[in-house]
Amino acid sequence: MITVTDLRKVYHQGKREVRALDGVSLTVPAGSIHGVIGHSGAGKSTLVRCLTMLDRPTSGAVEINGVDLTAARSDALRTARRRIGLVFQQANLFDSRTIEANVAYPLELIGVGREKRREKARELLGLVGLGDAGNAYPAQLSGGMRQRVGIARALATDPDVLLFDEPTSALDPRTTDEILDLIVSLRDRNPDDLAVLVITHEMHVVKKICDSVSLLEGGRIVESGPLTSVVKHLDGRLSQALLGIPPHAHVAPSDATLVDVLASGDHAALPMIAHTSREVGAELAILAGSVEQLAGTTFSHLRLAVPNGADADRVVEELKKLGADARRTAEIREEEPLA
Ligand SMILES: Nc1ncnc2c1ncn2[C@@H]1O[C@H](COP(=O)(O)OP(=O)(O)OP(=O)(O)O)[C@@H](O)[C@H]1O
Ligand SMILES: [Mg+2]
């Protein structure tokens, strides 16, 4: 389990103070995959550096299974750091070492004997699907394979937390999905032991593997929660980004008012539309729609056209009565999409 409490990092750029992290708190329990998403400059890399104490936070606490890294010094800090396996966008492997020796490297640093190292490295390479590649050199591997080696290396010290910083940003879509599947399988293998934190700017990563997500903006977490709760409301930033319909209408018909509706789980959207049409006595047209399966729950986001002459406010009311979130589309804030 990783617990971050009121983490702050202030940089000084000349006379200017930059609050790269401005009071970040989050908890990732063992067995869970948490995504942190944010635009360039939001503070993502600063968060990674402060979580691992590569950069000292200005204030706040980072606890791994109850041990506060910000309070630990030298030896204690080195031991505590081993509780975190770190995977970056590029695996940064030693080119002159075999794959097996790369994976064994963290064990070498802490004085584990040769045979034990080899055994562990082979086991981990098998786990990441590279059982045959131990004697190869990094230059002989594809980007996806190198990333697998990086993951095996991060697992060498049996960490309690796996921290991924943009793990798939340099990979093509298919390889991305293979790496994401691997991350899920690692969590599933040790659900009681492993908490996973993934820093990314890709919504796809959040959709595919995260149980919960935080949106980082200007060093602050502005939205956070389980995937199924952050997408419940139409005006949420994460909701708009995860459901994929732009918050504003590109084409606004002159003979109709646009209404957006978001229904989840048991509230099937389509009978809802038929029911509302009947109640209001107007034929509602569906102009756009997306159906997403997120963390096991179905979400339907539809954009409806309510013909002029029909009461759009009543349409909104009826849909809300049925348990959906609904609103006139023009009221939706226009903001820069996240993805
Ligand atoms: N060493 C530093 N000295 C001064 N300012 C810094 C330093 N590192 C980061 N910053 C500032 O802190 C803010 C957050 O930067 P950070 O690199 O964490 O963003 P990011 O979310 O990782 O962005 P990107 O997606 O572009 O990698 C930025 O305003 C950046 O200029
Ligand atoms: Mg960064």
Explain what this protein looks like in three dimensions:
- The chain is α/β, with parallel strands linked by helices.
- It has two domains: 2-226, 3-Layer(aba) Sandwich (Rossmann fold); 237-331, Alpha-Beta Plaits (2-Layer Sandwich).
- Helix content is 32%, strand content 29%.
- It is built from eleven helices and 14 strands.
- The chain has a six-stranded mixed β-sheet with strand order 6-7-8-3-9-10, sandwiched between helices. A four-stranded antiparallel β-sheet has the order 2-1-4-5. A four-stranded antiparallel β-sheet has the order 12-13-11-14, with helices on one face.
- β7, α6 and β8 (195-200) form a beta-alpha-beta unit.
- α3 packs across α4 (114-127), α3 (99-109) runs parallel beside α5 and α4 (114-127) packs across α5 (143-154).
- The longest helix has 17 residues, at 173-189.
- The two termini are 29 Å apart.
- Magnesium ion binds at residues 44-45.
